[in-house]
Amino acid sequence: MATIAIVGLQWGDEGKGKVTDYFSEHVDCVVRYQGGNNAGHTVVIGDKKYKFHLIPSGAIRGKKVVIGNGVVVNPKILLEEIDMLKSNGIDVDLMISDRAHVIMPYHIKMDGIEEERLGKKKIGTTKRGIGPCYSDKIARMGVRIGDIIDEKKLKKRLDNLFQIKKPIFETYGIKINKDEIIKEYILYGKKISPYVGDTIYYLNSIIDEKNVLFEGAQGFLLDIDYGTYPYVTSSNPVVGGISTGAGISPKKIDKIVGVLKAYSTRVGMGAMPTEDKGKIGEYLAKKGNEFGTTTGRRRRCGWLDMVAAKYAAMVNGIDKIAITKLDVLDGLEKVKVCTGYEYDGKFYDRFPSSPDILERVKPIYEEFDGWDGVAGKKKYEDLPIKARNYIDFISEKLNAGIAMVSTGAKREDTIIIQSD
Ligand code: IMP
Q1: How far is CA 200 from CA 66, 235, 236, 323, in A?
Q2: Alpha-carbon distance 85 to 92, whole Å?
Q3: Which residues does residue 215 pair with via DSSP β-bridges, in sequence order?
Q4: Annotation says 53 is catalytic
Q5: Closest CA to 363 of 292, 279, 263
Q6: Is the separation of the CB atoms in 375 and 407 below 8 Å?
Q7: Which CATH number is associated with domain 3-91+199-416?
């Protein structure tokens, strides 16, 4: 039996939903270990588009799905997704950790206010309350799923918390009605309670006997530790996040697949060395339909950044690569790839930790001849040779084999190269 981790190697939106959907066919259980409803996975089956923010997309294949302790949960959104699946004839087999933290109404308000106050320096968050919820978790002032399924416990918890938080709410100008929150969240808790369990014991009881997939949300460059801090999310999308966010030993991860979009995109603020504010950026956004699943914002676009990808591949220790959206590059005369940075007369082949340097670096590009005819291809041999050169280049630079290439949005527009 085997475990597989799917992690994004860029700034999220790499197309992990489709990759996860493919690999989840062969597993028994799909697990989320970090993030919250800031994520957006789209899976297209036939004419139907399924959008997930919280529940692992393996649910549409009828798999057991688990929301681990490292996830922050907006219970309202969770219940809406359960209902969405039900209305599509899918009775979700879900287990959610009693240790997962709960996004409270004040977290969402604080996220909005903090962004507003930062003005031009804002992070460009999804305003889903992710940062404030994780802040409370680390400050030991959080509310957990285990608290909202027990009215007495929730009342006691909020009474305690509000003693500390009252002045903070006043400073923020947030009006909070504690009794209303309790009423609302106890109702959510009642509805959620059949799904709540100790996911840590559950996952460890099946990990040696079943096939389990860990589905990362966001991407490595948004990781709170490794990403472009402070323009990052508040969790650990890195593969190591599986250990802390799902309670699984690193020894138990058999295969790590890094998902890499054939070009770069980023939503929100922060450095993006290959961002193209001209024609190419516009072309990629339009052709790649680069608008957020969660917020609808247009993504910033540019050429593939191999400095960033190599950094991501190194820290995640990837075994295989899934290249997505290769079809979007169809029809271009030239395709460029950034293989180094230059700043202040210095050459960088490493991803700088300083946001100031990263803001200022100039990408150094290698140029490839363009191609046409990738869209919809189902076999590697049918790909244009120039597109194959591009794939081989990525594989060589990242020192990992290619597991799959996505050639369109639909499930069947996929080339499987090394499925083992
Ligand atoms: P937050 O996660 O809402 O706090 O937002 C922090 C940063 O992460 C912002 O730049 C967001 O645009 C970005 N972000 C959060 N979730 C995603 C995602 O699923 N895809 C891409 N960017 C994301």
Answers
A1: 10, 19, 18, 32
A2: 7
A3: 6, 32
A4: no
A5: 263
A6: yes
A7: 3.90.170.10
Q: Whose CA is nearest to atom 21 of ligand 1?
A: 12
> What confidence tens digit (pLDDT) does each residue in 321-363 have?
999 999 999 999 999 999 999 999 999 999 999 999 999 999 9
Q: What's the residue count for the chain?
A: 420
296 alpha carbon to ligand 1 midpoint, in Å? 12
218 lines ligand 1 (CB under 6 A): yes
pLDDT, one tens digit per residue, over 149-182 is 999 999 999 999 999 999 999 999 999 999 999 9
Active site residue 21: no
Ligand 1 atom closest to Cα of residue 217: 19
Task: Please give the number of the atom of ligand 1 that sits closest to the Cα of 128.
Answer: 3
Is 0.70 topped by the overall pTM?
A: yes
The DSSP bridge pattern shows strands 3-8 and 212-215 to be: parallel
Which of the 8 DSSP states describes residue 410? B
Please give the angle made by the CA atoms of 297, 218 and 312, to the nearest 5 degrees: 120
Architecture of 101-194 per CATH? Orthogonal Bundle (1.10)
Query: Which one of the listed residues 13, 305, 319, 413 is annotated catalytic?
Result: 13
Q: Report the SS3 class of residue 327.
A: helix
